[in-house]
Design a protein that fits this description.
The protein has 182 residues and is mostly helical. The protein contains 5 helices and 2 strands; from the N terminus they run E-E-H-H-H-H-H.
Length: 182
Amino acid sequence: MRIYTAKGDNGSTDLLGERVGKDDPRIDLIGLLDESTSSIGLGRAHATIEPWREMLIQAQRDLYQIMAELAFVDHLRPDAYRLPAERVAWLEEAIATIEATVSLPPQFVIPGDTVAGAALDVARTVVRRAERLAVHLDRAGQIPNPEILRYLNRLSSLLFIAARAEDLAETGTPRLARGERS
């Protein structure tokens, strides 16, 4: 069995229900979400705090559900593929769980004190990029579910606080953006 079809050799691909160009913004968003889940996977692979690793797996599964939802044209999308509001509520609970373990300074923190924290910060920026495109598509009427925007916004917060938890577990204190210069 081959893993390629060669159907996309002409620069087109399938949404479930229509053929579109690979440069279609909806395909770009699905690609950014794919990049997001891969980035989260890298952060998870380096993470040292086990409960947060399971939260990251759940977030990756949610991103796959969002990608599946976006892969359908509106009139063919089964209701089971819509991301429910409960997933946003779950993210808020996950954020609160990690926040309870972390004390943050009221200043910007420089990423990169640990490999896990740095990888999660990269994942956060990829999610933010996906969120910006999702907002653009939403304003153009192409995001069928407002929970997608809410989810992406909360997901970046989860990744931020998980990165800080990883950094603080190893270093004990965050490196502040505003500090002494040599």
